[in-house]
Amino acid sequence: MKKLLTLWLLCVSASACFCSCAAPAATVSAPEKLVCLTFDDGPHPAMTGAVLDILEREGVPGTFFLIGNRLDRECAPLVKRILDGGSAVGCHTSSHDYARAYADAASLRREIAEWESAFESFVGPLPAVRLFRFPGGSANSAFRRLGSAAAVLRAVPIDLGYTVWDWNVLTDDAAGAGSIEAQKAAFDRSFSAYERSGAGAPCVVLMHDGIANAHTLTALGQIIAFLRQRGYRFVTLADLSASF
Ligand SMILES: [Zn+2]
Fold this sequence. Notes:
By secondary structure, the protein is of the alpha/beta class.
């Protein structure tokens, strides 16, 4: 059973987004402070492994939204390492090309089918919980131009059995944040807004492992320590998708 859950979510554009989730279950209690660390645009031969080194050292899971055309023989062991370590993976389209992926519903379906085919070819069976994140989020610039017509595209991954996730906290590490100070400032700003929202939604942090960025690695360690100190429990979006 599926329903559309409206969360307060902050996109790159700072506009509101949505998340579609499955029905409530008993695995996660509502008042608990939960956080999902998410990493987009990988796998990357060096960066994904460096992120995993930190997650494994800290004993926390992450959720990786992978680009299909980056799934190859070289990166397959990294994806297996993600899964073997208790983290989750999701679909982030095959090309991450707005013009191709968002041309129409058929194009988006093809992008997802290509992602699935690449995953099955190089990694193995598709994950039991299907997670999807739109490149640019569900309020990306292409969808904003389409207006109400974007609803058809937003429905595509849901119709294919995926749970769609945006984010509500970010570090702007893919939007030109060129220093650890800039990433920290972006995190502080969005996390304060998230806490002020008081909506009780899980904290979903957006970071990127698609390009090598030492500042992202530094920020990741600091964010884990900060959230742990605030009493957050680290879970994956696959955990949450089975909990709403
Ligand atoms: Zn992306």
